[in-house]
């Protein structure tokens, strides 16, 4: 995988925004600060985080706590019932659709991605493929599929009452993708 | 034949103003939204690929089952191969009991509805919760889905608020955003406390043992993430061989289903994934993962039928519902299966739910063919419905219909009946060219439209009096097939066809032995009479003698072109049928191809719009020639009306059998015509002409409805 280009980022962003998702671009060094800013803007007071090396190295827990936000990194199933925010790292992305892909069987990540009111999906820029077909090609060529793969594109939505589009039924009401430029 | 009960259900659906508004708006805006969602994606290629992968799986279904089972179990799943709906339900019942499951959260599974999952387990004392918002609402209402993708379209926000108020015992306001919040709150509690999640699969991959579920709301993910037991139920039609084979399906499914490029969620489970077993202790383990593959005799019957097996290519997108003019009016409840609705629903109901019900509802299909154009699996849905109609006509012949069709097939009898009718109609026609009211049980026919008079002198008697003037060398001879409407109603139109062809150097003959083309018999599933009529016309038309056969009725043209199908390949009649079929063209196509396009006309300004007949645009695929002919006519300003290729509601005998559905379809057409501001509506089908003229006349509108052949004759001064 190569570094994300401006054009690819813009494509990802545009497509995600077209389905009511938000998208920002940052660097590994500024990731913690970006998350703090985003959560403060939404008035989030507590959040679950499924840590990954990228999130740990960026020092997101410390930064959020210093900003007065309660952070849970364990007992996710318990805390996700009440915590307003949620952060996980997605394994892949699809620029054509603005899709984040959870490509592994980590239940904490699945819970956070599903139950949070405001979900932040962090993704390395180099993990975003241009097309939907590329994603199927990539996953189909894995030696073994993970037990779970989830494509997530924007917040949860419904049009079940009078065909009126409304976001946030069962899943997140807000979804923000945070694309991190690789070093 | 529609029963009284079905007729009442149709009327109730037509009277539901919420359904009319929501479904009407949805279906109206759907084609454009769908097209936008395909920007950059080739639909035809995608569905060809879908057909390829689904057909492969259907052809290798036993291998698919075996491979899927081995691969899913290798990854920690438990698979049960059920050979009947009862066996499936019994196995699940026992599982639920053995595991002490008290509460279940479900995301959408149509297969579970087939096996009466909710009812059976509820009776066993298990709390079964539908979590899809629409399904939740109709469960509270105690109703069945009105649409496969949007189950609660028949209810308005006020009704939903009342249902929620009753359920939560707290006042719910009729504000959609607030109602969605209520559903979120209520359902969270259910998700977090459920013992088992139940899902339906959009696709199951044999090579990897993976099941796919697509949702927008996120309930599918909740069901697969929170409870420590997870049960999938799906039918054997859901298989594809490889993971990559699933790709084209998820490309078409959201675009066809809801005009989205992708839904919010696609979840793929390969065997048992991880769950939290105790939230206080934060312990984790692989979940208990069960799969029930439904392999009932109904599904096997589909596979055994060499035509019907295409039903296995269905991806359950619901596009056939969304473009169906009849469905847009009546919604899904009238289909009565409680599971599957619309075009594909009629077929699935026949095989999987109730043949009896399917026999009644197949009549709702107008045979306009729009479903075939959008079907994600490339299934010829309306053609397969016609096969059901044929089967039903053979197994349960209807005496009155049969008599009528026998009479039509007996050319002399039919023609004498029409001649008698020309005299007998006088009391109703009252000297007017249109009949506005018919007595008693026939009154439904004239609701919202008038009927034309039957001509006093049929065209076959007029033909010998027409002087055919051809300037210069005669280029060839064309035999005219008039069809009933030109022969007995629109005789002037038949004359104009001849004058138009004369003007470009062709002589026209009228073989007197010709009879009804057989389209009405075919439409009612009466293959026997249709075949008889084919034989009569092949012998009468003697296509071998002519350069071309012209018909100014696309339904007749289509029928004539389908004649070879009635005879054994290689036989003499087959050969003759083929000669006739190959030489037969619809008027506007033939006239255009023979050099009829000219910049000529009287120059008198007239604003005109064009209505595409279903058979001409979707079966014969002629859409441009007539527009060019009209557009090049001096004085004509051609404007497109909205939904110009939507059915007018005529559908041959349809307008007689289902006037209550046909009338509102016509109403929409008339509105679109009026909105176009045109003074003249051009058509190429005398059936559409009769229907639309009837509608215009009944409303006293200053709009004329004319056949392309008439317009050419008139504007070029040929009459």
Strand order across the biggest sheet of chain A? 1-12-7-4-2-3
CATH top level assignment of chain A: Alpha Beta
Work out the helix count of chain A: 7
- Contiguous low-pLDDT stretches of chain B (5 residues minimum) are 438-442
How are strands sequenced across the largest beta sheet of chain B? 1-12-7-4-2-3
| Count of helix runs of chain B | 36
Regions with little confidence, pLDDT below 50 for 5+ residues of chain A: none
Number of strands of chain A: 12
The string of secondary-structure elements of chain A, in order, is: HEHEHHEHEEEHEEHEEEE
Largest sheet of chain B: 6 strands, parallel
Instruction: Please give the share of residues in helix of chain B.
Output: 40-55%
Known CATH architecture of chain A: 3-Layer(aba) Sandwich
Overall residue-averaged pLDDT value of chain A: 96
% residues in beta strands of chain B: 5-15%
Tell me the major beta sheet of chain A: 6 strands, parallel
Please describe what this structure looks like.
The complex is a heterodimer of chains A (183) and B (719). Chain A is of the alpha/beta class. Chain A has a single domain, classed as 3-Layer(aba) Sandwich (Rossmann fold), CATH 3.40.50. Chain A contains 7 helices and 12 strands. Chain A has helices spanning 6-17, 31-42, 53-57, 60-66, 76-79, 107-115, 132-140; strands spanning 22-27, 46-49, 70-72, 85-89, 92-94, 99-102, 118-124, 128-129, 148-152, 157-158, 166-167, 174-181. Chain A is globular and about 40 Å long. Chain B has 3 domains: 1-37 and 318-396, no CATH class; 60-294, NagB/RpiA/CoA transferase-like (Rossmann fold), CATH 3.40.50; 459-715, no CATH class. In chain B, a hairpin with a 4-residue loop joins strand 10 (274-278) and strand 11. In chain B, helix 9 (157-168) packs parallel to helix 10, helix 16 (342-353) crosses helix 19 (381-395) and helix 25 (491-503) crosses helix 36. Chain B has a 6-stranded parallel sheet, with helices on both faces. In chain B, strands 8-5-6-9 form a 4-stranded mixed sheet. With 719 residues, chain B is of the alpha/beta class. Chains A and B meet through helix 5, helix 6, helix 7, strand 9 and strand 10 of A and helix 2, helix 8, helix 10, helix 11 and helix 12 of B.
């Amino acid at each position: 995988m190569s570094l994300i280009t401006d054009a690819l980022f813009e494509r990802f962003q545009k497509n995600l925004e077209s389905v009511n998702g938000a998208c920002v671009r940052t660097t590994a060094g500024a990731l913690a600060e970006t998350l703090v800013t985003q959560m403060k803007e939404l008035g989030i007071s507590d959040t679950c985080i499924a840590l990954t090396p990228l999130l740990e190295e960026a020092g997101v827990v410390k930064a959020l706590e210093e900003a007065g936000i309660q952070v849970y990194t364990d007992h996710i199933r318990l805390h996700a019932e009440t915590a307003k925010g949620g952060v996980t790292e997605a394994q892949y992305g699809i620029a054509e659709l603005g899709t984040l892909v959870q490509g592994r069987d980590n239940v904490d990540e699945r819970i956070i991605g599903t139950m949070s009111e405001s979900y932040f999906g962090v993704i390395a820029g180099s993990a975003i493929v241009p097309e939907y077909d590329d994603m199927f090609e990539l996953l189909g060529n894995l030696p073994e599929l993970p037990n779970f793969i989830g494509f997530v594109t924007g917040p949860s939505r419904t049009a079940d009452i009078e065909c009126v589009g409304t976001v946030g039924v069962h899943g997140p009401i807000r979804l923000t993708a945070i694309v991190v430029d690789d070093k | 034949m529609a029963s009284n009960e079905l007729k009442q259900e149709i009327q109730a659906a037509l009277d539901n103003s919420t359904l009319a508004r929501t479904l009407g708006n949805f279906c109206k805006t759907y084609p454009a939204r769908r097209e936008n969602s395909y920007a950059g994606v080739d639909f035809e290629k995608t569905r060809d690929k879908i057909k390829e992968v689904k057909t492969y799986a259907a052809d290798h279904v036993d291998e698919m089952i075996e491979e899927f089972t081995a691969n899913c179990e290798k990854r920690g799943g438990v698979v049960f191969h059920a050979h009947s709906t009862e066996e499936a339900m019994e196995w699940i019942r026992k599982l639920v009991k053995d595991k002490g499951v008290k509460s279940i959260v479900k995301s959408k599974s149509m297969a579970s509805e087939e096996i009466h999952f909710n009812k059976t387990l509820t009776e066993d004392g298990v709390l079964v919760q539908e979590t899809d918002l629409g399904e939740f609402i109709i469960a509270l209402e105690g109703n069945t889905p009105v649409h496969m993708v949007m189950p609660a379209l028949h209810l308005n926000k006020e009704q939903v608020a009342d249902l929620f108020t009753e359920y939560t015992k707290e006042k719910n306001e009729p504000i959609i955003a607030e109602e969605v919040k209520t559903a979120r709150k209520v359902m969270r509690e259910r998700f977090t406390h459920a013992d088992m999640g139940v899902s339906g699969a959009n696709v199951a991959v044999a090579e990897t043992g993976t099941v796919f579920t697509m949702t927008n709301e996120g309930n599918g993910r909740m069901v697969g993430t929170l409870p420590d037991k997870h049960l999938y139920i799906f039918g054997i039609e859901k298989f594809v061989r490889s993971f990559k084979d699933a790709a084209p399906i998820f490309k078409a499914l959201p675009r066809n289903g809801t005009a989205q490029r992708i839904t919010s969620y696609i979840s793929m489970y390969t065997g048992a994934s991880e769950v939290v077993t105790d939230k206080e202790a934060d312990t984790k383990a692989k979940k208990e993962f069960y799969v029930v593959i439904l392999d009932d005799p109904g599904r096997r019957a589909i596979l055994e039928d060499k035509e019907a097996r295409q039903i296995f290519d269905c991806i359950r997108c619901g596009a056939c519902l969304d473009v169906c003019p009849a469905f847009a009016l009546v919604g899904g409840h009238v289909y009565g299966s409680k599971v599957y609705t619309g075009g594909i629903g009629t077929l699935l109901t026949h095989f999987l739910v109730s043949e009896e019900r399917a026999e009644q509802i197949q009549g709702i299909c107008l045979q306009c063919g729009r479903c075939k154009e959008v079907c994600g699996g490339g299934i010829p849905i309306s053609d397969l419905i016609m096969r059901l109609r044929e089967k039903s006509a053979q197994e349960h012949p209807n005496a009155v219909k049969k008599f009528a069709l026998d009479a039509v097939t007996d050319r002399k009898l039919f023609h004498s009946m029409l001649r008698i009718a020309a005299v007998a109609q006088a009391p109703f026609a009252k000297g007017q060219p249109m009949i506005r009211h018919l007595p008693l049980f026939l009154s439904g026919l004239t609701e919202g439209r008038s009927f034309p008079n039957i001509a006093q002198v049929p065209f076959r008697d007029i033909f010998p009096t027409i002087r055919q003037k051809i300037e210069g060398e005669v280029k060839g001879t064309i035999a005219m097939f008039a069809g009933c409407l030109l022969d007995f109603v629109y005789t002037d139109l038949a004359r104009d066809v001849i004058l138009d062809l004369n003007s470009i150097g062709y002589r026209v003959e009228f073989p007197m032995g010709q009879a009804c083309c057989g389209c009405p018999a075919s439409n009612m599933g009466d293959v026997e009479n249709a075949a008889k009529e084919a034989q009569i016309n092949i012998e009468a038309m003697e296509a071998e003698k002519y350069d071309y056969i012209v018909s100014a009725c696309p339904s007749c043209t289509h029928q004539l072109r389908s004649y070879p199908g009635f005879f054994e390949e290689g036989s003499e009649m087959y050969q003759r049928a083929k000669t006739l079929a190959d030489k037969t063209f619809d008027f506007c196509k033939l006239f255009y191809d023979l050099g009829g396009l000219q910049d000529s006309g009287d120059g008198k300004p007239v604003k005109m719009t064009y209505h595409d007949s279903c058979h001409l645009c979707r079966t014969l695929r002629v859409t441009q020639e007539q527009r060019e002919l009209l557009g090049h006519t001096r004085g004509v300003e051609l404007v497109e009306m909205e939904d110009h290729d939507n059915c007018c509601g005529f559908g041959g005998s349809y307008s007689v059998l289902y006037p209550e559905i046909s009338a509102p379809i016509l109403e929409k057409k008339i509105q679109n015509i009026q909105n176009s501001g045109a003074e003249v509506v051009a058509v190429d089908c005398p059936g559409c002409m009769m229907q639309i003229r009837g509608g215009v006349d009944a409303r006293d509108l200053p709009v004329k409805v004319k056949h392309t052949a008439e317009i050419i004759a008139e504007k070029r001064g040929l009459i």
